[in-house]
Predict the 3D structure of the following.
Amino acid sequence: MVTEQKSTWPSIGPFYEEGAEGFRTEEMILNLGPQHPSTHGVLRLVLKLEGETVVQCTPVLGYLHRGIEKILENRPYMGGIRYMDNADYLSPMLNETAFVGAVEQLMGLEPPRRAQYIRLITNEMQRIASHLVGIGTYGLDLGAVTPILWCFRDREGILSLFEALGGSRFNVNYMRIGGVLHDFPPGWLRRLEQWLDQFEHHSLPELDGLLTGNEIFEGRTQGVGYIDPQQAIAYGLTGPCLRASGVSFDLRVDRPYGAYREIKVNPQVRQEGDAFARYRVRFQEMGESVRLIREALDKLPGGPISARVPVALRPPRGETYFAVESSKGELGIYLISDGSEYPYRAKIRGPSFVNLSILPELLRGHKISDVIAILGSIDIVLGEVDR
Amino acid sequence: MTLFTQIWNWLIDINGDGHGALQFIITFVFSFGFVMTSAAVLVYLERKIMGFMQDRYGPLHNGPWGLYQIFLDPIKLLLKEDVSASVTDNVVFHMAPMVFFAPVIASFVILPFSPYLTTSALETGIIYYVALSSLDVIGVIMAGWGSNNKYALIGGLRSAAQMISYELPLVLSLVGVVMLTSALSPACQGAHPNLAKCSIGSISLSDITVQQMHPWWLWFVLIQPLGLLLYYTCGLAETNRTPFDLPEAESELVAGYLTEYSGMRWALFFLGEYGNMVIVSSVATALFLGGWSGPGADLGFWTSHIGTLPGEIVFNIFATAWFIIKMYGLLSVFIWVRATLPRLRADQLMRFAWLVLIPLTLANILILGVVLLAIPGITLKLVVAGIINWIMLAGYIAFLGRVTGVSPVGRLPKRAQARLRVPEPIKALAPVER
Amino acid sequence: MDIVRRPLRSGAVATTSAAKNAQYRDLVRALQPIEDIVGHPVPRILMGGGVVGMEIEREHLVAVCRFLRDELNFDLLSCISGVDMITHLEVVYHPRSLSRNWIVQIKTKLPLDNPEVDSVVGIWAAANWLERETYDLFGIRFVGHPDLRRILLDDDFVGHPLLKSFRPTPLTWKDKATTQADPVAAVSGEAQRGIERHVPKHLGQGTLERLHPGTPTFGHAHQDALEDDMPAEEPEQGSQ
């Protein structure tokens, strides 16, 4: 009983190909499997190799697909905020900001100014935390075992601040529609400033000295994984990957939301477009975030931290698209409300998902050893890719 | 002679030159025990030192400062189940760890811990050491082949290529030291050196160590610092340490030759690697850092103050202590480098060996030879050679970035390029799910 | 030209000002030629966040998108979403113009019996995976897509989950293992669950391998193709 099933795989090509003289040439298929120390999550890459060169790459996704969009249709708006934490699990605050921002834009609701500043501060802290993980794991992929531990040590400062603020280190569930959950506890701002001081004057220069001028690190990342700006835009890249190719597009600058309308952001742009440029953009963005947090702390207004919004919120019928500048790129929420307590459709535009689509194009022609360097430089989070 | 005198002579003074069976026994036991425990201690030290560099404690709980880890790690490895997958070549697979480990043990014999704790019979110290380190390559290839795993085979071959490539500059960087011993030997000194009788220098480690003690601080590192750095770099590559640890990297795609080994077999490879590190550091200490010389290691001082036998004992203790301190200093640099640097890519690694290290070592030999021949007077020779070498060292460090920095972007091989097709858009697709 | 301003909740600060309306007036005016492409007036609605929305029939979608990209420089495709409106399906596109900082929303309605629309992969390369995802979750077919297959779910998943009519289906039993000839294709799906099968290895090693539920088989369990060469030695486990 032979079931004739058409292969749904793309034409990777026949496994054996007859050469002109009639002998077989074998191309090797290498499976960078879902469990691998360097794939930043459960990502599977099927590489077709000719010798040491990658001829074709097929990413296989979906190992972390949890159906978050479907879940969001079955939870009230406030109950759904916490599911956004699971998308990009390295930047939950930014995800939550996107979701509540979408609901507020749908309702035409503007949160109080203090809430917007608090959102900016936590968002920028979260951006620093996410970039620390990205840079640390990138160093680890390339063999530098020390930067990751220093990055995580600095991340501990941020996470314990989040714990004091919202009760949880990682997925805080802190944003609410109309504002934020808690105000700063006493002493929090002073702790934040202490942490900022030691981060900016001690940790960042340490990390810089260890990675940036290192000839081996530069040798493995410079000239590797070049993305043309036109190609980047065509593939929908956003965030540090796009800014490293010379395109200055930052949603905080071009489409400001919240307190970014009052605090100006300098987008960090580089022209080289290779993996080293992406690393430098993330590094410089961390410094920029520190500056933004300091400015927001100076200008922090008083007032309420949340608008009064019913728990069983029923936004008016309508649809909206709202995007924030997440640590990985443009995190967009396309929200449709039918007037009931549950969203009708909540589509999450994950930046890592779109950024990853350039990988097959990018890996063509590179050697195996560069695969890890390129994949790490795009800095994906599988939670956002698969949702 | 009475039986007692004969036994006494055999023990103490078999040849009439002060060396006896007792010395051999003590040296053997000490050497073997020291290097083996050094490997275990080194594992602990690595975890501890790397931990402190990474802003964390290393092992902390087992014993004071986690010192019991030194015993517990080997015990754990001994107790592991002996897993051997169905392998192609049983003999090769099982022999590989031993073939890898045996040259390491055999290299102990050349180490001059102190004038008493050394086997001076081995006059061919350097050649012997280099030959044995070349045997390690066989062990690696055997490991890759016997693993029945094409990725392990590729990894083994790549590791073997790396080790072979770095053998050459390793040997060449030691030639400078040999030339210095030649210049320092008595027949070559003076205003009119007797070139017919001028010995060609010594390749015995103990002799080279002794040559560095006129005065006790004139170590060869002052005259040949570039030699030490190059030798050390090649030692890093020989022992598969970062930044040359591509064969053992867990985040690289191709599995290394160690994939199929577990338990005590893996422990043998592991001990072999750490033993190799100890040997490399010891050889560097003996050749460049003056071996057992140091303040306090003065035979005349101790014999005149305490007496002949206690004086010798105390002198040897000091000498051994200095040797061990210097050796562990170099080992700590191994660990420091591992904590700091990322990994070189395979092609960068090979390019570095062949296009940078070999020309540099050859240039080192050439320039040193010219200086030693052209300049009269031993002091002036050494000073000029030292100055030139320090300048070369500074240039090497300054320009290293230029050499390793550029990485070529990959290009598709022509065959693949011809076959590469952009998939055509299909007008209408048949339904794919039932 | 219609600009509909959404009524704001009382007490909220107005975010749409006259200056912003002027900015979007340019965009709305620039979108005028779409009416020529489509052939009839197209209402352009200013929505929250400065997004101008339009609804285009699926026949004119590619032409409109090409106009947007080539003439108006909408070069970055942000998002493609599918929506299940129970009576019909919708595909919503959100392209951006980086140089002029515009964003539009294009909505296409699709009937339920024939949910097909032309693929915009030729216009924006980002649409490749976004359309695959929409197909995966909604069943909307994109004609002209070079590689339309599931991306987030298993290759042999039955159903399209984000449809409102999707209910968790009971596990389906298939008679044979659903591996393909591709040696790296892993077995997933329900047929492997709950049954243990003995499969001889065909690499010349001669060891029987017991398949536990969920084991990827990498081509070993491909009974269909190998039945011609070697009879299958597996005992039938009643997996029908």
